[in-house]
Each structure stands twice: as C-alpha cells, then as structure tokens.
Amino acid sequence: MGDKFVPHSIDNTNTFETEMLGEVKAGFPSPAEDIREKLDLIKLLVRHKASTFFFRVSGVSMVDAAMDEGDIIIVDRAIDPYNNCKAVCYIDGEYTVKRVEISDKGVRLMPANENNTAYKPIEVTPENNFVIWGVVTWVIKKM
Active site includes 98? Predict the structure, then answer.
C-alpha cells in the first residue's frame, strides 16, 4: 500500500439507511415475501465508528482471502488482533494487508495468493518497526 495508505474514516453524522426488500433464496425459487425492514449499512458494517476506516485494496497478494484489487476493506482499530486474523499492518515504513500468524515463535504476515509464488511470508523480527494497525472486519466487492 505504501504511499497510497489513505484511510477514510466515518463520523457520527454518517449514515446510509435504506429499505431492505426482504430475503432472496439462493436455492430453489420461491414466491417473494412482502417483508420490508430498514437497513442502515453503517450500523451493519461498523461496530466502532471512531476507530473504523475504509481502504481500497491495491495489489493481488490477498486474492485467496477474498480481497481483490479494487475491493474496499473495512478495518477496525478497536479489535484486538488474533491468530489468523486479516489485518492492515505497518512494517518498516510500509502498510500492507495480510493474514497474521501469531505464535510463541513470533509473528508472520502471510499472503493469500496460491497462483503467484512471488508473495512470500514476512517474518517479523525485533529489528522491524512493526505494528498491527487494525483488523479487517468486512470486504466490499463489486460484482
């Protein structure tokens, strides 16, 4: 992500409320139900407004984790990182999104692209300037 690291935050005035038309079956078709409810996308996607940011994914190192070039990821800084979480990390002056392996041996940043062997795990050492910036909570993609 390098110099393209520009998080977009939300404030207390942001809301996007619309009417949800109900459920749609992903199996056999069924008659449409006339059930409508209000849907606020901010309430659905954001747990902690003050610590939640949006990023556009640049690159293809995480395609096997459903993060494709151009997708929007929602990152929450209030969530404690955990083993195998997907997170935006800062390492030695660069930002990246990776799966975070946390063990007794230390931390590794794992890419998720089986088709490209150029992406290797990053072993975090005490010499690295490193922080897990925030945990990815949602991926928004265009179909």
Answer: yes
Task: Pick the catalytic residue from 98, 105, 120, 141.
Answer: 98
Domain assignment present for 40: no
Write down the catalytic residue from 4, 61, 86, 103: 61
Any catalytic annotation for residue 58? Answer: no
pLDDT confidence of residue 38: 78
> Could you tell me the residue range of the domain that residue 91 belongs to?
2-11+48-140
**Residue numbers of the chain with a pLDDT score lower than 70:** 1-25, 27-36
Phi, psi of 75 (to 5 degrees): -120, 130
Q: Report yes or no on 121 lying in a domain.
A: yes
User: Parallel, antiparallel, or unpaired for β 72-76 and 37-40?
Assistant: unpaired
pLDDT digits (tens, 9 = 90+) for 101-133: 999 999 999 999 998 888 999 999 999 999 999
- Domain assignment present for 36: no
